[in-house]
Design goal:
This protein has two domains: 88 residues, no CATH class; 113 residues, Nucleotidyltransferase, domain 5. By secondary structure, it is of the alpha/beta class. The chain is built from eight helices and five strands; from the N terminus they run αααβββαβαβααα. Helix 1 crosses helix 2. Strands 3-2-1-4-5 form a five-stranded mixed beta sheet, with helices on both faces.
Length: 233
């Protein structure tokens, strides 16, 4: 694990402490700096920003590798929500299963059939064929699923439900994730936006799993992030 932190001025535990604060709570970089200084850890907010840019995507790839083909429901909810980057709207594609567990997320500049198709293909490669897919009645989403079936990438037997009411569980999940972005909007680069969102999504996904398990102690984002980094060994 320590090879991921090679050459860093700070101990890896301090980096994990900052990432856990930023990804799990609705805090700005300056808020994280103040909290860490309270415990005599002098880290500048710009340093935490650089750690986010470097490790957000790393956490995402480690989580994907660990989570791939896990024991998740075969009933999927897929939808998009918007994120501002440089004052313009980008679209965050998100997918969860019927239990609310996170399957994947993907930030795109456009909301269209091509983006929807590629996103669904990514999920199928990771988790196999679903039993059913729930989307809203947005035309490109419907067209994307029809094309995937005609191309043979998605089984014809997969039920496609088009209902905003069945997707309420995902709409609520959008709000939980976006509430942690209150200090980050609007992002000034797509790279920073993608890294931040992936870090937040991964910690949120691990939190959901912890809530389904009976544990003696509460959820610790720092312990979970450290365990995830250890899987890189």
């Amino acid at each position: 694990m320590k090879k991921l932190f090679k050459g860093k001025q700070y101990d890896f535990r301090i980096i994990i402490e900052a990432l856990g604060l930023y990804y799990h709570f609705s805090l700005s970089y300056r808020d994280c700096e103040k909290i860490m200084r309270k415990f005599s850890i002098g880290v500048d907010h710009t340093t935490i920003y650089r750690w986010n840019k470097q490790y957000g995507k790393t956490l995402y790839h480690l989580w994907k590798r660990k989570n791939r083909r896990g024991a998740l429901s075969k009933s999927w909810r897929i939808d998009e929500t918007y994120i501002k980057v440089k004052g313009k709207y980008c679209y965050l594609y998100r997918a969860i299963d019927s239990n609310g567990l996170t399957l994947d997320m993907w930030l795109r500049n456009h909301r269209d059939t091509v983006s929807t198709k590629v996103f669904i293909k990514r999920i199928i490669r990771d988790y196999g064929q679903p039993r059913s897919i729930v989307t809203d009645k947005y035309a490109p989403s419907i067209k994307a699923i029809n094309e995937l079936k005609s191309e043979g990438f998605l089984d014809e037997s997969v039920n496609h439900w088009q209902s905003k009411y069945l997707n309420n569980i995902l709409e609520q999940d959008h709000r939980k994730v976006k509430s942690k972005l209150s200090y980050s909007n609007s992002f000034q680069s797509t790279y920073t936006a993608a890294s931040t969102i992936k870090g937040i999504e991964v910690v949120s996904a691990m939190y959901k799993i912890s809530r389904r398990e009976i544990t003696l102690f509460g959820f610790s984002p720092w312990d979970e992030i450290e365990r995830l980094f250890k899987t890189a060994c």
